[in-house]
């Protein structure tokens, strides 16, 4: 999460990245300060001073975070004079995204809800600029705005978004923020962006789980080295992805506990849900 705000702060220099972190640990506070995030004392202060709120939390906390924001918004002493955009970028199901959207519509209809998801790794600066579809490269001035575009180049994740409103058309630096975050508006409906993230996660996490099973079984049979040789000769891309996924999984394995249930209420996901369940069980049986 913090790396996204670091990128915004680095590229979008007139902006202010803010957060309310009072309930969180001292380590979280330290990382936020190191990322140039301004810490605010309450949710109300966060809502009153923000034009955009990005919700990037564990999936189990997506709904409670949305409720915190709607409560703070309705508790403002005076109404905001500018629109507030809420980007839900959590790994939740389309049905959950629509439920949260309905929460905003019924309790704080002035907040503009955006359904979204993050696909890919955290943003990192590139030392050697190479234009591509996944790299942010700005060299002049944003159309219709006064913000100078930075020459810094970043590797960025893809962030599909959906819903009736587009960040690009937001009145306060919307086009610039959309370009900075690498947003891709894929549908006027709430749900498709979360669904795309859900399906992508099933391929990446499911593949890693299968690799865990295959590698640990091969190790127990004494043929792990030979398996890697065969994969390197016939499927070098899959070998690289598999070994990277297996070695990179331990620090984030806990996320599977909270990410998997999103398939339980994803429409049309029954076959995908059962396949992923098998993949995860196979992987975790030898890994945990």
What do these coordinates show?
This protein is of the alpha/beta class. It is built from eleven helices and ten strands. The chain folds into two domains: 2-189, Rossmann fold (3-Layer(aba) Sandwich); 193-287. Helices cover 48% and strands 12% of the residues. The strands form three sheets. Strands 3-4-5-9-10 form a five-stranded mixed beta sheet. Helix 5 links the parallel strand 4 (84-88) and strand 5 (111-116). It is elongated and about 70 Å long. It starts with a helix and ends with a helix.
Q: Tags for this entry?
A:
single chain; 288 residues; alpha/beta; Rossmann fold; 2 domains; five-stranded mixed β-sheet; three-stranded antiparallel β-sheet; 10 strands; disordered C terminus
């Amino acid at each position: 999460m913090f790396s996204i705000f670091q990128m915004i702060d680095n590229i979008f220099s007139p902006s202010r990245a803010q957060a309310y972190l009072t309930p969180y640990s001292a380590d979280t506070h330290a990382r936020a300060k190191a990322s140039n995030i301004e810490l605010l004392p309450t949710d109300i202060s966060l809502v009153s001073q923000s034009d955009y709120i990005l919700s990037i939390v564990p999936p189990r906390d997506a709904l409670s975070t949305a409720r915190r924001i709607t409560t703070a918004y309705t508790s403002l002493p005076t109404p905001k004079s500018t629109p507030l955009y809420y980007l839900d970028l959590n790994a939740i199901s389309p049905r959950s995204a629509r439920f949260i959207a309905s929460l905003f519509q019924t309790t704080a209809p002035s907040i503009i809800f955006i359904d979204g998801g993050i696909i890919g790794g955290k943003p990192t600066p590139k030392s050697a600029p190479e234009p591509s579809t996944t790299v942010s490269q700005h060299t002049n001035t944003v159309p219709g705005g006064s913000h100078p575009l930075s020459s810094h180049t970043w590797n960025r994740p893809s962030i599909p978004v959906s819903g009736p409103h587009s960040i690009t058309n937001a009145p306060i630096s919307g086009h610039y923020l959309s370009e900075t975050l690498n947003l891709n508006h894929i549908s006027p409906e709430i749900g498709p962006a979360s669904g795309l993230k859900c399906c992508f996660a099933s391929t990446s996490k499911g593949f890693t789980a299968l690799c865990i099973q295959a590698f640990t079984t091969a190790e127990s049979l004494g043929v792990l080295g030979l398996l890697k040789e065969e994969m390197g000769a016939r499927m070098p891309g899959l070998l690289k992805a598999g070994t990277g996924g297996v070695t990179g999984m331990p620090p984030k394995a806990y996320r599977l506990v909270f990410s998997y249930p999103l398939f339980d209420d994803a429409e049309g996901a029954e076959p995908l849900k059962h396949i992923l369940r098998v993949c995860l069980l196979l992987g975790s049986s030898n890994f945990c």
